[in-house]
Amino acid sequence: MNRLLYILFFTLFAIPSCKENIIIDTEEGELLIGIYGSITNEEKRHTITISRSEKFYEKKDPDGILNAKVFVIERPINSTENEGDTIHYTEISKGIYETTDICMARQGYSYEMHAIFKDNGVEKEFTAKEDYSYNNFSIDSIAVLKDMFYGDKSENRNKICPYFDSKSDNESVFISKVAINGKVVTDSLNEFLSFKMQGLSKVYFNGTEMEKLLDDRYPLGLYYLDKNKKDEVLCPMDKVTLHLYKVSEDYYKYVIEVQNNRGSNPFFGSPFNVRSNIKPEGRALGFFFVASHAECSTTIGEKQDIIMQ
Amino acid sequence: MFITKKIAILFVTLLLSLIAVAQENSATVKGKITDAKTGESLIGVTIFVEETSTGTITKENGTYELSLQGGSYTLKISYLGYKTTRKIVKLKSNATLIQNFKLEEEETELDEVVVTGRKKDANISEALMSAERIQMVTIKKMPALMGEVDIIKAIQMLPGVQAASEGSSNFSVRGGNTDHNLILLDNATIYNASHMMGFFSVFNNDAISNATLFKGDIPAYYGGRLASVLDVQSRDAEPQKFSASGGIGLISSRLMLEAPLFNKKTTVMIAGRRTYADLFLPFSKNENLEDSYLYFYDLNAKITQKINRNNKLILSGYLGNDKFGMDEIAGLDFGNKSFTLAWKHIFSQNLFSSLEGSGSNYKYGVAMDMKPYDFYYEAGIKDWGLKYDITKTWSSKNTSKAGITGIFHRFNLGELKNNQDSKESIIMIEDSAVGCRKSLEYAFYLSHEQVATRRLTLKYGLRLSMFQNVGGETFFKLGDNYNIMDTIQYKTGDTYNTYFNPEPRLGLLYKLTNTSSLKAAYTRTVQYSQIASSSTGGLPFDIWIPSNPNLKPQKCDQWTIGYFKNFNDDQIETSAEIYYKNLHNVLDFKDNPNFFGNPQIDAELRKGKGRAYGIELMVKKNNGKLTGWISYAFSRTFRTVDDINMGKEYRSPYDRPHYVNVVANYEFTKRFNISLNWIYSSGQAVTFPIGKYIADNTPYAIYSGSRNRSRYPAYHRLDISANLKTKEKKWKKWEGEWNFSLYNAYGHHNTWAILFSPDSSNNNIITERMYLFSIVPSVSYNFKF
Description:
In chain A, about 10% of the residues lie in helices and about 40% in strands. Chain A is mainly beta. In chain A, a hairpin with an 8-residue loop joins strand 5 and strand 6 (about 85-95). In chain A, the strands form 2 sheets. In chain A, strands 2, 3, 4, 5, 6, 7, 8, 9, 12, 13, 14, 17 and 19 form a 13-stranded mixed sheet that branches. In chain A, strands 10, 11, 15, 16 and 20 form a 5-stranded antiparallel sheet that branches. Chain A has 3 helices and 20 strands. Chain A is globular and about 60 Å long. By secondary structure, chain B is mainly beta. Chain B is about 5% helix and about 60% strand. Chain B is built from 4 helices and 51 strands. Chain B is globular, with a radius of gyration of 27 Å. Chain B starts with a helix and ends with a strand. In chain B, about 50% of the residues are buried. Chains A and B meet through helix 1, strand 1, helix 2, strand 18 and strand 19 of A and strand 24, strand 44, strand 45, strand 49 and strand 50 of B. Strand 18 of chain A pairs antiparallel with strand 49 of chain B.
């Protein structure tokens, strides 16, 4: 509701308004440590990035933290024991740490991340914990369809429609990434691609039950590829992949806050820092999360027409 | 409770004693002054007694009263734009003479007569300070956005008043929040005075007679807000015959009709407005706008019924609505409704009373019809009020006012209604009601103004306010850390929390000379209803909530001193006022608050204290070809609130140290005048980032946790308008006037918002300034007949 109200009213102001680039006088402040990473149910090497925040207008790669000891302790959810299996990480490039072995997160387990390193000669330890409490799922198929909801106005949009079963959880939260020929063209942190099922849980997504309800919006697209964006133009034989991640409510809120981190205006009031689950609280940025992942691809046909797999 | 009862009894006794006051011994002349043509009451007309060099001015309803010794006197009646009239009256001791005047408009050029629109040196001799009365005649000459002159845009040109944001109808007075202002239309509260994103206010200038802004020295008969009272009175028409006025503009038109009925004992005024920008949207090149709609309309009506010489009934009402929607998918509508039924009664020549019942309803709704979702969400606030007050003029040196008021508030914090048939649907957003909160707010007040000596006038009063929460709700009691400690269900009708606050009002005037004076005032104000919002510009869907055990009433102590000096025989007024305010239990929002659909909304707010101080300087020219004012205000305002800015003091978003206003009107001829406004202010206090963090190739801004340490660039704007009246022809009743306006004449790009766009390709954040207006030309045609 928050979003709907603000978007509606912001649109009103956008009607007469204009925009121009400006350089603002940013404030001086301490550069903070940021940790961002995840562990999912994919069998692969998972990464965690440790870096420092930057000055606002600085244009350089993130300043990675070297020589950190990074590990994740895996133990059953609600376990009272301190001990658990340890997943070790190895530094593969400046500030980027990867699990030493191929591994995967398991349903019913909690994951506690530790990162220990020296910062200006002082040893610091940062931690974060997330539970893998949701069920795994799979995407049966995806379709890339011309969006006809707005009639002629929709001609520049193709929608990516997944078909999957989300019945296993009462209330699910998803984020997503879209890749064309293996290159991620958008993700939830950049676009409004995160979504709560909000009433759609326990329903086969884009199944017959939804068809009855959606009419001309059926099937429901999770992302709309914009032909005006160079990276999102589809050509025949392009492979489109949708990655869906079932995530925690906390991480979903983090994503929403990143999406809303868009400056200051009279409606939103004073901006605030995006939340973080990295401890000690207030001393670090970023998020460590656990996700159930599923992906599905389709290939665009010769005529670049409606394609369904 | 015992104390409350005692005070109530004391006040009732006082009221009764005032009613029972015996006749005065001195002679009195009183009456009403109206426009001869329209019958409209004229406010601020000077009645000057030439023999005694004393006088008075007419009040809000056009009435005046003078106490003199028995004898013969010459009354000189003067008013800007009207012929000056003289009348010899003979007064008998212990008797009252009713002497009404009907003033005729001045036919000759303005510079050929000497008229004054106010009592001479009124600002020097009146004890009231920090108050500005604006007549529609002044406002109508000011340049306006899209040609629509507006009371609220006009008061934003006064020192100490600032617009909440570009184009907004919300305003901050002396560092207060936008919800610290009480806005009254015929004594009914208007909770959202904005139309169309704030570019217009709810006040139709054809239907309005005048407005008074009290920004510091707030009389005891007003209460309920911390910072100011904007008292807007609708047109007090008592026309002798049918008349009409209106205007046709680029985006809106309006029409006002008034007429006498039934032997002129009944008079009716009705005025309406509607914008028609939505009619052009289908032709927009922006495809998203083609199927959108955006408009507002409003309607003012007033019926005055003279029962007899001493009794009059007045019924006035307002209805307004804004509608905005996109392609029948989503829509937003909001609007106010209000009414006032007043019975004005004259007990004797020195004792008047007014009994008023009023109602106010502000509601907004959001509709969503995008399958699979189909719902309607609404929230708002509804008031029912009753007020009785009496005014007693003991002598020309002593006047008292006392009264009782009570308001029942019903706050709807949010209600979601699912439009789908639950039997057929598998996708339901459950109907939910965040809840209604109810409360009662009462006040007893008494004030007295006393001319103690030739130089010294004292003004003192007391408002005793009481507030009670009324049950029928689930109350979430919060602990010190804002976590819920207890959940309590209160039965409908139970009162479960009472606040009682004395609000003293003191003021004094010391006349240094006939043309200079010193004034001082102390005011305590208490506020029991507030907006829960993080927006600084004011939004139509801001949620009003009452005080309760979690949210103590906000209080403000304000001290003001001022020096007033007039020059050139009252041609030029100057003033300097200094104020200091202490705010208690002031509210601000925590980081990342959620106000919508949240039954525990109290936990999203943080309370603390605040302070504000400033100096306001003004030079004003009232008469002649060139009229207007130049003002400068230096003002600071700060807050210290739990959990915000690490508990340290920070700037309020309304902290703008420097504010300059220039308002000028030059009458070239009676038919042609040019006006300009120029405004300069320090930029709005905002929070800018200290850096950025890049997560998964997405850069986002990070903040120090210090609130409002930075500023937008300074704001400045010049507006110009030219008004040209059509030639008057004696055989034609039609009068027309063209208005040509340039809003933001030199096209300065004033910052409305700073937007960040992440640029993942080079880990950068692009910063953009969003501005609402460049040069906005407009033309409108106003008429009356």
